[in-house]
């Protein structure tokens, strides 16, 4: 096991200086990005996020192109010029695509992230194509370099920050923007340049310094201990727990548990990364892990892929579901390669990742186009099945069942979320996807659907307009509120004096039955049940504002006439438990 050379400040500075010669275009675009961020810190009305993103894309693209230039395979085939031409074009094309998107939209963020991830994978993959070195060699080097650059950057940031704090405390006030500029300089300029200075050089002229190259590609003793004695044993323990869980729940819960899916994805991602990082370790724990873990990973990712496909069959394709399925396919192939070829074809994993990543954002077949088409076609099919889509407009013909109501609502919300509502040519121009009334007018059902019986649910209503109601021929006006939990009632009882007689008004909640009780001076009780009124509220939606008419309850008997105007109503059901809170104005007339 070769050790890294001892820390030498002179060598580090020399490495940083050399990186300016090695990555001139990358550093130029890093400076451009830092300048745009600094401009934004000082305050500007100009939209800078797209420029910043494109600057980072350009910097990574030229770094990847340089890594290809240092590979004899590309230079011998005459591919160096096309690779640099691609690097010159990728940022402007990306910026033009972003120009057509709303600022800070979901598509903008995901497209940028996927492209940056693709370029970073290319940075690690291109230098080792047709080389004696493997993808895991460069991945290990990048893993070490990342944490080394991060550590140096944090120390630099903390040191300069302390100096600025001392100046601010002892000498004069330091503008808060100075700290923002410091963050920009350290993490946008210094950290990437320092990382690049540590990047292995696989070109022929670097062969003279083969010893240094081997040291950069070796695993430090500390990392070997962390991987062999902590990460690998913990992964085995978690694998055993996961296998037992799947075996015990394979018939039902496994296929429906939404929380398990991200856990399986995280598990497989950690195992793949740990497999690649442990490839160069020469100890029994690592060798056993490399040999056995693919046979554990393969059935787990196969089941995860099946569960993801099952979830897709229950609804339309979303970008989240797309990436889950794509990652599941990638993890399955990776596990298969690991099981069949062990460490002989690991570079294939990087190539496969690049293909999947770039395909997901390639214009015309990108994830947003595919998912939008899935929702538009599915939505049109649902409306056609009810005969509601006529002459490119929606006509209310019959009641839509709750399952399809939910699918229609979710589809429109998703298309709005990704800014693709223009695909619904029949949708009114001023349609508000968050308006219950707009859904009622267009489809004949509201935005909020009542939950199925037995499910946990929450109802909330409030008076949606200022109260202006005449007392009229009522004799008494008051206000009450009540909170109930497990038949325990907290309420403000009212004492009413009328014609020298004392009446007592209180709320009763027994066996989940809500009722007002009015006790007369001669101990006669009049009961006014609120259950039918509450049931009508819960028929329409879970959360909404009520009109004055909807919020009003009236009742009378031979002795009294009452009117209630509800200000708010909250009901929370969780299994057998129920919590209810409401408040209202009350008008009482004596006969």
Give an overview in words.
- The protein is of the alpha+beta class and 591 residues long.
- It folds into three domains: 1-218, no CATH class; 367-443, no CATH class; 457-590.
- 57% of the residues lie in helices and 15% in strands.
- It has helices at 9-22, 24-42, 49-69, 72-77, 80-99, 106-125, 135-170, 176-197, 210-217, 221-249, 253-256, 260-277, 284-313, 319-341, 346-361, 367-385, 402-417, 436-443, 531-540; strands at 389-390, 393-394, 457-463, 476-485, 488-491, 494-498, 501-510, 513-519, 525-529, 543-546, 552-556, 560-574, 577-590.
- Strands 3, 4, 5, 10, 11, 12 and 13 form a seven-stranded mixed sheet that branches. A four-stranded antiparallel sheet has the order 6-7-8-9. It has a two-stranded antiparallel ribbon with strand order 1-2.
- The longest helix is centred in the N-terminal third of the chain and has 36 residues, at 135-170.
- 27% of the residues are buried.
Radius of gyration: 33 Å
In helices, the fraction of residues equals 55-70%
Described by the principal axes of the CA atoms, the overall outline is: elongated
Low-confidence stretches: 1-5
Number of discrete helical segments? 19
Structural class based on helices, strands and sheet pairing: alpha+beta
Strand content: 15-25%
For the residues shown, what is the average pLDDT? Answer: 83
Could you give the distance between the termini?
99 Å
> How many beta-strand segments?
13
- Number of folding domains? 3
Biggest sheet architecture: 7 strands, mixed
């Amino acid at each position: 096991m070769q050790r890294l050379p001892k820390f030498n400040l002179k060598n580090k500075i020399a490495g940083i200086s050399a990186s300016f010669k090695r990555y001139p275009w990358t550093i130029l675009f890093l400076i451009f990005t830092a300048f745009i961020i600094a401009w934004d810190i000082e305050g500007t009305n100009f939209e800078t996020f797209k420029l910043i993103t494109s600057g980072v894309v350009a910097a990574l693209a030229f770094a990847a192109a340089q890594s290809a230039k240092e590979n004899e395979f590309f230079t011998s085939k005459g591919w160096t010029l096309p690779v640099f031409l691609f690097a010159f074009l990728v940022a402007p094309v990306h910026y033009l695509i972003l120009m057509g998107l709303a600022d800070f939209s979901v598509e903008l963020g995901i497209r940028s992230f996927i492209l940056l991830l693709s370029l970073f994978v290319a940075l690690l993959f291109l230098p080792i194509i047709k080389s004696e070195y493997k993808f895991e060699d460069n991945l290990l080097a990048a893993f070490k370099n990342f944490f080394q650059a991060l550590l140096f950057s944090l120390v630099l940031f903390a040191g300069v920050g302390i100096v600025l704090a001392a100046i601010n405390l002892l000498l004069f006030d330091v503008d808060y923007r100075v700290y923002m500029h410091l963050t920009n300089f350290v993490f946008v300029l210094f950290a990437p340049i320092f990382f690049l200075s540590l990047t292995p050089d696989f070109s022929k002229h670097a062969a003279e310094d083969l010893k240094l190259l081997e040291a950069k590609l070796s695993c430090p003793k500390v990392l070997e201990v962390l991987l062999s004695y902590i990460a690998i044993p913990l992964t085995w323990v978690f694998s055993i727990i996961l296998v037992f869980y799947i075996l015990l729940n394979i018939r039902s819960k496994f296929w429906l548990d939404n929380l398990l899916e991200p856990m399986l994805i995280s598990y497989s991602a950690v195992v793949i990364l740990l497999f690649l990082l442990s490839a160069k370790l020469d100890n029994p724990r690592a060798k056993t892990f490399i040999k056995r873990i693919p046979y554990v990973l393969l059935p787990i990712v196969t089941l995860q892929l099946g569960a993801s496909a099952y979830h897709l069959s229950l609804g339309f394709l979303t970008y989240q579901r797309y990436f889950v399925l794509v990652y599941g396919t990638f993890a399955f192939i990776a596990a298969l390669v690991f099981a069949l070829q062990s460490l002989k074809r690991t570079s294939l994993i990087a190539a496969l990742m690049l293909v999947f990543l770039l395909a997901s954002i390639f214009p015309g077949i990108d994830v947003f186009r595919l998912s939008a088409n899935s929702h538009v076609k599915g939505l049109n099919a649902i409306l056609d099945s009810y005969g509601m889509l006529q002459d490119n407009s929606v006509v209310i013909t019959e009641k839509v069942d709750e399952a399809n109501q939910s699918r229609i609502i979710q589809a429109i919300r998703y298309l709005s979320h990704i800014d693709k509502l223009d695909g619904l040519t029949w949708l009114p121009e001023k349609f508000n996807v968050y308006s219950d009334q707009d859904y009622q007018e267009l489809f004949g059902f509201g935005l909020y659907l009542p939950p199925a019986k037995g499910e946990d649910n929450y109802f909330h209503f409030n008076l949606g307009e200022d109260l202006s109601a005449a007392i009229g021929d009522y004799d008494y006006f008051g206000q009450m509120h009540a909170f109930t939990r497990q038949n325990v009632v907290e309420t403000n009882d009212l004492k009413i004096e009328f014609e020298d007689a004392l009446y007592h008004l209180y709320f009763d909640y027994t066996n989940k039955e809500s009722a007002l009780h009015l006790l007369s001076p001669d101990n006669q009780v009049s009961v006014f049940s609120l259950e039918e009124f509450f049931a009508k509220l819960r028929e329409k939606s879970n959360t909404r504002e009520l009109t004055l008419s909807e919020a009003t309850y009236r009742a009378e008997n031979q002795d009294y006439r009452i009117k209630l105007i509800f200000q708010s109503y909250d009901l929370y059901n969780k299994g057998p438990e129920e919590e209810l809170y409401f408040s209202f104005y009350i008008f009482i007339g004596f006969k």
